[in-house]
Amino acid sequence: MNRARITTLALPILVVLGSVVVLLILAGTNPWDPIRIIVEGSIGWPPFEGGSARKVGDTFMVWVPIALASAGLIVTFNAGMWNIGIEGQIIMGAIAAALVAREVSAPRPLLILLAILAGAAGGMLWGLLVGVLRTAGGVNEIFGGLGLDFVALSITTYLIIGPWARSGVASTSGTNPFPDNALLPSLGGSKLSPLAVAIAVLALLGVWTLFRGTLYGLKLKAVGRNRSSAFLMGIPTNRYLLGAFAICGALAGIAGTSQALGLHFKLIPAISGNFGFLAILVVLLARFQPIWVAPISFFFAMVAVGGPGLSLRLGLHGSLGGVLQGVLVLSAMLGLGWAAYLTRRRAMTESGVSSG
Amino acid sequence: MTKSKNRWLSLLALLLAFAMVVAACGDDDAGGGDTTAAPAETTATTTATATTSASATTAATATTTGGDAPEGFKIGLILVGPRNDRGYSQAHLEGAEYALEQLGLSVEDDLIVLEFANTGDTPGLSLPRTAQDMVDLGAELIIFNSDDMRDGAFEAAEQLPDVPMIWVSGDSAWEDGKDFQPGLSNLANVWGQMIFGKMIAGCAAALETETGQIAYLGPLTNDETRRLVNSSFLGAQYCWENFRDEPADIGFTVTYIGFWFEIPGVTLDPVLVVNDFIDGGADVTLSGIDANVALIRSGQRADAGENVTAVPYDFIGACDEAPEICLGVPYFNWGPAYLDAARAVIDGSFSNTWTWFEPDWDNINDLDSSVVGFLQGDGLSADNAASLDTFIAGLADGSIELYEGPLNWQDGSQFVGAGEVATDFQIWYSEQCLEGIVGVCSVNVFG
Fold it and tell me: CB–CB of A197/A258 below 8 Å?
């Protein structure tokens, strides 16, 4: 491994670790304790040995939507689109799946299949709406997406305190739980749904394959790199952009389905868990590589699930987990930028030497 | 990726990460400005005059200070909002602290608290897992403090059937309620009879209003909130007719913003609603939402020279935000309720009872015994304070029974016939607002 490669890998890690240690010291605690508590609270201590099946199951079920949303975002980012509207796509997927879970009566396998398809369709339609606004209306996808995020949130709220309200006690607690028949099958004693995990893994593999081994992926990348050139080369750019939004929306919709039918078992106002926004950071940290999305998503899932334990066991503020996430991302970006700068400078120096 | 695109990516990531840090750090003391939600009152016990039903108790037991608890007894308290919100969650925290102190235990060592226990603030939260964590840390009594925690509390009670738990505001342990869960033998419910606090609040408003127009800032429409609106109205109507001797009817308007707190773009803006109230002639605003917007906005309008007052809700210290125009606050005092529950756990008598604590009518502001109180504010004149005391005394001795018929619903249909008194069940599951109240109180604000 050459020096530049070592720098690229090691520097971000060192910066991240240093930042976390400083943050935790500032919070008045031994840096090791919170890390251990997050690990213990999410996958057990020692990892995967000392924890209950419930903890591990919850962590995986948080990982699923982050990984699915990240997989979708890799597609839109490669197409050059900033799909900030992914939160709304997750929400609409959850709503569509909830509709099926509440209203459709069918044998369990069929019902779950229908719910997943409905979730994918809900997210896809919401994603396509962003795409249509972008391609036909000239509305920047960031603004269109953000606007549709708010609309989706409003629809959820409306449903929860309106038509789908619990009888007599409409509140933020969400709708009535879905019938057992509509819930994703899980391993005994936990919420871990092998089906949801398998879909997320397949999604990541699918996206990896899309950009590694298909002409469609290659053309999508071309659209993302230079839309005008791609168009001149005969690629129907708008159609490809819409395709990217459709794929991303569908994956986000399945993420919403997993949230509704696999984690919360009902529709709640915060059904997205902000995992769409988190997925944007995951994808950026992973440098658009599906293979890195999996572990990075898992790390954030651990922080999300294990974070509340900081308040219980150390008396630290309950939101420290969120602060930790933000600092991690900031420091990772700083480390990556620093490493890139050093690599560039070295290359320029070497280039100067050789040419001189 | 081009260099330019990388730059944009980095910028976007930095912005998002910064937003995450800010979001995580913020809202420490939001008095309901985030996703905290007030609980729904749950099951009813008595009629308004305090006849007891099978599962209800009346006032909390008297306290005995001193170490009557085994060493190491701990309470696990799961708060829907921040511990220092000067509102709903803080009232529960102070209640648990009181219980431990009365038992001679250490608040620092024996109270395990999780705050922000809602999926908006803590997306990865699992209430059953949190309950298990608390048990692992030694908690022998787990308290879920919000109606929002219904499903999580049920799940936790199922998974940990030997651990005593309380779902505050729930009706799962009320045999006559609509949501009775006989299988959850370790899950009890507590709640306070805030209907009386609201009656007193309504009376204070009627005593002070000069325009004869009172407004109520409602959250979302459900049985609980309608019950509290109705109770406020009945208190206002009684005091208007009996202490003011005014010929015209009292004006009482309710506007529901659509949620327990403001969601920009989704709910009505409570500040604008309060402005509308005042601009429409109301000079007293009663608050039914989590955030202290009614008092704060009314205080601002009063500072600008307008003669307006307000009545906040929930927390004993709520008047501090604008004391000079605060007529008083109906508040919860959870200490006696939690002390009762802790003692029941210690002596082995804890069971899945449902308790709707009525005020201690000997002194509704006795923090050792009354779960519901009303603290008079500086905005109430001395004369009106005396009238209010008379009204409270009437409620206490039963000479004032506001839920006695004839009472009609807002649509004109009969709620309680002449000479009858509404049952707990009728009051609890209030289907509509009462006749005389102006405003939409139907199933939900969206129709």
Answer: no
Determine the Cα–Cα distance for residues A138 and A162; give it in Å rounded to an integer. 34
Q: Is residue B207 part of a domain?
A: yes
Question: Tens digits of per-residue pLDDT, B336-360?
Answer: 999 999 999 999 999 999 999 999 9
CA distance A73 to chain B (A): 13
pLDDT of residue B37: 38
* Domain CATH number, residue B220: 3.40.50.2300
Asked if the structure places residue B208 within a domain, the reply is yes
Is the CB of A54 less than 8 angstroms away from the CB of B126? yes
Taking an 8 Å cut-off on Cβ atoms, the answer to whether B444 and A167 are in contact is no
Return the residue in B9, B129, B135, B220 with the most chain A beta carbons within 10 A, the one to mutate for interface testing.
B129
Which residues are bridge partners to B375 per DSSP? B329
A229 interfaces chain B, CB cutoff of 8 Å: no
CA distances from B238 to B232, B242, B392 (A): 10, 6, 12
Domain ranges of chain A: 57-304
Tell me the chain B residues in contact with residue A268 when contact means C-beta distances shorter than 8 Å: 119
Q: Smallest Cα–Cα separation from B94: which of B334, B270, B442, B265? A: B334
Residues 331-350, chain A, touching B (beta carbon < 8 A): 333, 337
Average pLDDT over every residue of B128-157: 91
Q: Quick one: tokens of A157?
A: 């709220």
Name chain A contacts of B446, Cβ cutoff 8 Å. Answer: 158, 161-162
Q: Cis peptide before B123, with omega less than 30 degrees from 0?
A: no
Per the domain annotation, does B140 fall within a domain?
no
CA B405/CA A9 separation, integer angstroms: 77
Please name the member of A173, A288, A327 whose beta carbon is closest to the beta carbon of B150.
Answer: A173
Nearest neighbour of B115 by CB, restricted to A55, A177, A311: A311
Three-state DSSP class for residue A84: coil
Residue of A nearest to B224 (CA): A169
Mutant choice from B151, B155, B168 vs A, greatest count of A C-beta within 10 A:
B151
Beta bridge partners of B408: B414
* CATH number assigned to the domain with residue range A57-304, chosen from the 4 options 2.60.40, 1.20.120, 1.10.10, 1.10.3470: 1.10.3470
β-pair type (B284-287, B372-376) = unpaired
Token output for A348: 């320029």
Centre a 10 Å sphere on the Cβ of residue B260 and count the other Cβ atoms it contains: 27
Say yes or no: ipTM exceeds 0.90.
no
How many independent structural domains does chain B possess? 1
**Pair A73, A203: CB distance under 8 Å:** no
8 Å CB contact of B121 and A225: no
CA distance B262 to B30: 12
- Does residue B239 lie within any of the structural domains? yes
Query: Are B444 and A162 within 8 A, CB to CB?
Result: yes
CB contact under 8 Å between A168 and B178, yes or no, is yes
Interface A-B, measured as beta-carbon pairs within 8 A, has a size of: 180
Q: What are phi and psi of B330, to 5 degrees?
A: -80, 130
- Dist. CA B190–CA B100, nearest whole Å: 18
DSSP B96-152: HHHHHHHTT--HHHHEEEE---STTT-TT--HHHHHHHHHHTTEEEEEE--GGGHHH
Residue window 64-103, chain A: list those with CB within 8 Å of chain B. Answer: 80, 82
Q: How many residues does chain A have?
A: 356
Structure confidence by residue, pLDDT tens digits, A280-339 = 988 988 888 899 999 999 988 998 888 778 778 777 765 666 677 677 777 777 777 777
What mean pLDDT is reported for chain B? 84
Query: Could you give the 3-state DSSP secondary structure of residue B282?
Result: coil
- Reduce the DSSP state of residue B214 to 3 states and report it: strand
